[in-house]
Amino acid sequence: MLAEDISGSTNSAPSVTQMRTASVDVDSLIVGRAIKSPLHDQHGVLLLSEGAIITEVFKQKLRDRDIKTIEVHTEDANIISTTHVVQNLTRAQGHSSHHEGIDSQLQKTIDDGLQFVTNEGPASRDSVRWHGKVGYEQSTREVIDTKGKEQCEVLDQLMHSSLSAESIDGFQLSRTVSASLSSLRDDFDCVNASALHLSEDASLARHCYRMSVLSMSIGIEMGLNEENVCRIGVAGLLHDWGMLKVPEHIRNPQRPLTYSEKLECQKHVMYSVDLLQKVQGLPTLVALVSYQVHEQMNGTGYPRGRRGSNIHLFARILNLAHHYVEMTTKLPYQDAIAPYDAMLKLFAGAKQGLFDPSVLRAMLRAQSLFPVGSLVMLSTGRMARVLRANGDHYTEPVVQVIQDEQGQTLLPDSEKSVIINMSEDNCYVTRALPILHGPEPIPAPHFLKNPNSLKKLQKQEA
């Protein structure tokens, strides 16, 4: 037995479930360090007695039995695991005092009841113009593209000035958000398509702008009023400003970050809250939301590992938007993934408990499974661009054909560049394509295909 081989004892733990434990990788165990509490396996069988020393022989015994992680007392984890030691050292060097100060600031926000969303008055969604099966006006798209780039430039200037200025004009940010909301009301899908095409630039300003637009879209679909949608938009623009205080080689890496560099990067949350104190006219709620953007529903996020409803709704919205924007942005060492593939990863994350399902459903309504602005191949052999989401018809968006069956590119005003509402048509999506960058085309899963069309396809293949 394992216990006999390793410790020579088969005594079981008297109350393993009552211990505060932490999961530790076997490879991270530090040889030569002693444990303060007995160490048992998942069945309660004693592996090492109190005061025993971690040895290389002990680690090898665990590996031989394909044991990759063990549960140890929390105090022991901070002594015998390199991972936990590094994490605690990092916190000791700058997180602790920061956390205490920030927690005391934000606790008042929670005590004042701002952790809960008050959503009185008409829903912002009621004032949005829904265009149905109609294309974008070229002039409108050009105006929206220009506005988006201008707003990113203003945001970039405000971000960098926050490092030295004593105060920042928060009303300028509010005006930016109000302009975005006005554009969303006028043509919801066109604004989202325009924001998606900023994905080739990984700059911090564009990241925050895309998050702001996408999060506002989700908030609109969730039935939030104008004031709440604007609060989400402002938090989206501000939440990552602290990244400017993170070392350049970590903020804009040319390679994947190491574990210690990721911990350094996580400090940006505290830096952001500090910088937000300089922004004049900022709703108190924005600091709390910004602090919680990287928390996950299952408690695996940071900085506090909060769970479920202990995370503000607006932070849950921004967290989902953050993952989508990050996955669909090209980095120096990593291509962006196709928007459709990013949506599938969000589904997988929701199944793991990372995301709020109600937020994901709202994003589906706002974007569809094939996000607005992305490219798809149709069962007819034509290529199309997703023009508009289609409500609850997540897999059947409104698309505009941009290439015919022979591969000839069609101009938007061409007679063959038809607009198709796929919920009313007999064709279906066979492949999701990258936009400006990304991986090879991704086959659409069979569940997306219209049952009747799928039968026809199967007959043809037979």
From TrEMBL:
Q: What PANTHER family has UniProt attached to this entry?
A: CYCLIC DI-GMP PHOSPHODIESTERASE PA4108, CYCLIC DI-GMP PHOSPHODIESTERASE PA4108-RELATED
Query: Per its UniProt entry, which superkingdom is the organism in?
Result: Bacteria
Q: Which InterPro entries match?
A: HD/PDEase_dom, HD_GYP_dom
One Pfam family named in its UniProt record:
HD_5
EC number of this enzyme = 3.1.4.52
Q: Which Gene3D superfamilies match?
A: Hypothetical protein af1432
Name recorded for this polypeptide: Cyclic di-GMP phosphodiesterase response regulator RpfG
Q: Keywords in alphabetical order, please.
A: Hydrolase
Under Gene Ontology molecular function, one entry of this record is:
cyclic-guanylate-specific phosphodiesterase activity
Domain HD-GYP, chain residue ranges per copy: 182-379
Give the CDD domains listed for this entry: HDc
Q: Which region is the signal sequence?
A: none
